Amino acid sequence: MTDQGEDQADAFFHALADRTRRDIMRRVLAGEHSVSALAAKYEMSFAAVQKHVAVLEKAGLLAKRRSGREQLVSGDVAAVRSVASMLTELEQIWRGRIARIDELITTEPDQED
Predict the structure, then answer these.
(1) Paired strand residues for 110
(2) Could you give all domains of the chain from N- to C-terminal order, each with its CATH number?
């Protein structure tokens, strides 16, 4: 993975490390929401929700657009697929390591004292 790809992965995982941001992603992947409608769902200030949205937007996981006075937010499915692809790649690496460990264990001769 290139440095740019690593930076993107860092941004994705940082953004998704927070429970509220993951919940916001679930909501905006299901459909477009205004930031004010999202803020009404959480027991935190509007400004706090805006900051969560900004982190997700900076990571490229969602997009914002203006409609009159409202900011509308929608999830970027392609970005979420990219995160899933990164996780699949990591899973394959680990599965390969586990398979090699299993191989070593089964090919080791029994040692008796």
Answers:
(1) none
(2) 3-107 (1.10.10.10)
